[in-house]
Amino acid sequence: MQRGRAVRRGPGWLSLALLPLLLPAACARPANLSALRGREELLPPEHLNGVRLERDGHLNRELPQELFLGRERERFEEDSQPRRNRRKLVGIFAKVDRNNDQKISAKEMQRWIMEKTEEHFQEAVQENKMHFRAVDPDGDGHVSWDEYKIKFLASKGFNEKEIAEKIKNNEELKIDEETQEVLDNLKDRWYQADNPPPDLLLSEQEFLSFLHPEHSRGMLHFMVQEIVRDLDQDGDKRLTLPEFISLPVGTVENQQAQDVDDDWVRDRRKEFQEVIDANRDGIVTMEELEEYMDPMNEHNALNEARQMIAVADENQDHQLELEEVLKYSEYFTGSKLMDYARNVHEEF
Length: 348
What we know:
By secondary structure, the protein is mainly alpha-helical.
């Protein structure tokens, strides 16, 4: 059941939708890009694999599976056989356990997380090559803003030839307000991805930064600015805990909805206090948020490793044994493996 929310944000209102089961909501400034998505290559994705926050400031609840499985994640999602998934998980455990002591330490998990993050990066690079070719019709190795704009509007049902002719002749385009808002937002990102000297032409590498800001420190900074702008209520360009957890406030329809809200707030409070606010002063600066968002930050990877271990570390030895990973398989893979205790020894 989807419930709309509205939260006062200084000069305007931020419309929100909180999906059940704590899935990331689809809210963005200034318009919901996900809802307007046409061909996959034309819009920067709201969800970035291996990054801790969505573009709209929501926690990435799929992060543990993304960091633990990497490209294996699709195989777990597609395979409905718990026994096969259990064997795959046993195989992954063996790969993470570099010293073969039948335990995964924080350092081993950190190394694995960095490898999986790099895997996500390489996957994005390969996808970008295909997407770039789709928006570079003349194959000159550069995409102009007008070329991109034409392809984008064509994907929304506009006549490509008519749009191209009007842009060429500097004629007014009749575009609905929501689509125009998306275009304005995209053009901001386009400018940010356009390395000096600015010419509004994006190379393949610059186009990668446009689609995947996690690949560029400058674009990562821009994404952090957008998130802070959405959440910052007093305009001081910093986030307090109340600002960070204020998104889902509002009336609730029933107890189940209230429980979802309570879980949402609890998760965000814990993330703010224990992870993002590095110096524990109750304030998150853009610098702290940028470090937190950087997927290639080794310190973050170690913290992530320790958190992942803590979830399943039943014997409190700060390491993971295979039985613990299998028991908490839903956290690591998104798949619940039945009868783990009865079958775990059959894998050896």
